[in-house]
Write a structure and sequence with these properties.
- The radius of gyration is 17 Å and the shape is globular.
- The chain has seven helices and three strands.
- It has a three-stranded antiparallel beta sheet.
- The protein is mainly α.
Amino acid sequence: MTEPSPAIVPIVRKSRIPLNALFTLFAFCLTAYAVYTYGLGVLRGDFSSIAILAFYMFMLILFVTRKEAQAESGRITHRIIAFATSLLPLLLQPAPHHPAPGLGILAAALWVVGAGGSLVAIGCLGKGFGIVAACRQVKTQGLYRWIRHPLYAFELVWFFSLVLLQLSWFNIVLFFTLITCQILRLLEEERILSASSEEYRQYFQKVRYRLFPAVY
């Protein structure tokens, strides 16, 4: 597999405090919006709302306590895409009718896989987590032994299960928008890491698939 060319990557070598403050503010606002969106469901004991809110709270904690980046993307378009990718799942709209029984069972199974895998993947990433593509630490253990971006993969499975449960044209378009943004995001991450880390270049050659084994 061809290695991403580090020559075409705009990189910010040192973090800039105003930008870090802006990213932190965004993370808090994102979590606040998640609380606003799913808080009532949590109070009602809805398990799906509890899992989604727990995921965003966990994400906030890891973001605030993340390691300082050795290098990060300097592309404005990537920053916009990264922020949009974090926000899109919260824009899911309720559907006016319930899914067919068979579709509901499939969605429930995918929900368990997606939600559980997302929590495990973000836990594996730990303080290497961030919103903007950056080189903090190279993860090669756990889920990262099989695919390069397990968090994105399980997030997509999770969101797909929610779309099946709330099937509408708006939510379908939202899902394909999320896929596009996630792919653009992970490609930028691979460029930054390949430009900054020999360990990652070796990992890139070893682990072939990005999201789903034997697919992509």
